[in-house]
Amino acid sequence: MAIVLRPVTDQDSERLLAWRNDPVTRANSRRGHILTWEELIAVPAGTRRETFVALSDGDPVGSVRFDYAGAECELSWTVAPEKRGRGFGRAMVAAAMAVARADKLIAAIKPGNPASRRIAESLGFIESEHRDGLEIWRRDRL
Ligand SMILES: CC(C)(COP(=O)(O)OP(=O)(O)OC[C@H]1O[C@@H](n2cnc3c(N)ncnc32)[C@H](O)[C@@H]1OP(=O)(O)O)[C@@H](O)C(=O)NCCC(=O)NCCS
Q1: What are phi and psi of 21, to 5 degrees?
Q2: What is the rounded CA–CA span in Å between residue 96 and residue 124?
Q3: E strands in 86-133
Q4: Would the pTM of this model clear 0.85, i.e. be above it?
Q5: Which domains does the chain have, with CATH numbers?
Q6: How many Å apart are CA 91 and CA 35, to the nearest integer?
């Protein structure tokens, strides 16, 4: 499955907010409330963030976010609600891993998210610890 990652633009704000505020995404996120755009784009101190829209045949199917801090890059991902369960999530994360510019990759997954666990596991991440109620999965860069 060919996925192209393109940097997010201002034109994507509505789409990203809708994907992020979808009830299933909220249930699987650190912050469960409905986010404003300002909250969504606020970057934690000490972190450098890059966000990409994943395209399949030119069609936006999801987003991946890279949060760089020190030698680590935390990857997070969301598939558009209507596109879930068709392999886009795994393909998108694989594409993200190939372009991440850090030696160590991390994913923080909320317990009860079997699809994300499966994605992490099948792409070589290892569950290493629990932090703030999240499973921390780690993988050295490809
Ligand atoms: C989690 C999410 C990204 C998965 O993306 P997706 O495109 O639906 O997943 P895929 O179709 O690529 O499936 C990935 C794997 O999970 C499995 N899977 C999918 N849904 C599943 C479910 N409900 N239960 C168990 N396994 C599931 C698939 O069979 C596949 O495994 P395989 O590679 O062994 O066949 C997507 O559902 C989503 O955006 N959810 C809301 C936001 C979210 O949870 N973000 C991640 C936070 S860590």
Answers
A1: -95, 5
A2: 14
A3: 104-109, 126-131
A4: yes
A5: 4-140 (3.40.630.30)
A6: 26
**51, 65 contact by CB (below 8 A):** yes
CA torsion, ordered 33, 24, 96, 139, to nearest 10 deg: 90
Among 21, 24, 65, 78, name the best residue to mutate to test ligand 1's pocket (greatest count of ligand atoms within 8 A of Cβ): 78
Ligand 1: lining residues by beta carbon, under 6 Å: 24-25, 28, 76-79, 84-90, 109, 113-116, 118-119, 122
Residues of the chain with pLDDT under 70: 142
Q: Give the count of beta carbons closer than 10 Å to the beta carbon of residue 56.
A: 18
Q: What are phi and psi of 82, to 5 degrees?
A: -80, -5
Residue 135 CA to residue 30 CA, distance in Å, equals: 11
If one counts every other C-beta atom within 10 angstroms of the C-beta of residue 53, the result is: 22
Chain position carrying tokens 């099948």: 122
Residue 120 CA to ligand 1 center (angstroms) comes to 10
pLDDT digits (tens, 9 = 90+) for 62-76: 999 999 999 999 999
